[in-house]
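Journal club side-thread
Mid-discussion, someone asked how the predicted structure for our own chain would compare to the paper's figures. Pasting it here so we can look after the session.
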Amino acid sequence: MNGISSYGAFLGNNYNNTIQNKKTNTAKQTQETNDKDIKLSDKAKNLLKDLRKTYGDIDFIVANYETDEEADAYLSRGTKDFSVLIDPEELEKMANDDDLKKKNLGIIDEAKEKLSGMKEQLGDKKDEVTRFGVSIDKNGKVSFFAELETLSEKQRERIEASKKEKGGYIRGTHIKKTRVSASSAEELLEKINNVDWSKIKEEKQEENKSRMDFSI
């Protein structure tokens, strides 16, 4: 790894840690608010509580949604490597039907295993994936998704220029983000590999005073 790549990784890791801590606190508050807004029976509430306890490494989000865009908006609130979005109607069905519960939990287990193993198939692209997950709508339809992120070319150029100037100032982080969804893990893998970053608009994150100051 060359110096630019090393510094880029350093910048990204420190920046991401700061952002992640902020996102975790915000997501927790959002989840608590969302849980209060969604009306569930006691059985469904207990099931959700059990799922979150059993699958401690998964974000379980319960929300009404109709479109992929709405699903993406909810899934973007997750802070863990793997997220599951469930429509409240489907959660209610699971709470009252052991067979359906077993079926959906099997889907979640299989999806997590497939998506976790998928990173090894992505090669260099695996570092672009920030989160995987699945959504289960009110009709039981399952969709797979991945959230991706990378430094923009502008940011890479700034890192290179900063290095040549022996430090200098990094006045902000420019990144590109996108999400892809599919009906299967195999289709998702294909879509990730076909992401064309040149067609995705960059986003400017909040500025930092210097490359050593990553406060928000």
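Post-session note: The first helix runs from residue 3 to 37.
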